[in-house]
Amino acid sequence: MIRIFFPAEKPKLKTEGGVEKIFCPIRKKWLKVIPEEWVRQNIILYLHLVLGYPLALIAVEKGIQVGELKKRFDVVVYNRDHQPYLLIECKEMKVPLSEDVLEQVLAYNTVLRAAIIVVTNGLHCAAVKSENGKPVWLSELPLMTDE
């Protein structure tokens, strides 16, 4: 497992009409704070501020067609050639990173074909890439490069 050390900067929060909201810098809107959204917004800040990924290369909660089913991925980071590079599935902190979670994101990747698949519950990540058709587990998430 990869331990995540979030940056000092935290997501923007506000209370509106008695509802706590969190700002998504990708979608540029305020969303109701639910546990999974909290993880999603913190991982976006981590990708941007710690790993150096430009916000312009990050997509959040977009619809995809997986076989006959319409699904939504959590986060995709594109490389500079605009190809899916990281596919990230976010779960709330109390959800363990299980084989079921990995199978969910693997199904999404049959469509997206990202180079690296990541599952996170905000506390830990598991990341895997394929080398010569075999899974290789990563010990850390990759930094943004100019490649």
Question: What does it look like?
Answer:
20% of the residues lie in helices and 37% in strands. With 147 residues, the protein is an alpha+beta fold. It has one domain: tt1808, chain A (Alpha-Beta Complex). The strands form 3 sheets. Strands 1, 5, 8, 9, 10, 11 and 12 form a 7-stranded mixed sheet that branches. Strands 2-3-4 form a 3-stranded antiparallel sheet, with helices on one face. β9 (84-90), α2 and β10 (116-120) form a beta-alpha-beta unit. The relative contact order is 0.17. The mean pLDDT is 91.
**Main sheet makeup:** 7 strands, mixed
Q: How does the overall form come out from the CA principal axes?
A: globular
Portion in strands: 35-45%
Low-pLDDT residue spans: none
- Overall number of structural domains: 1
Number of helices: 2
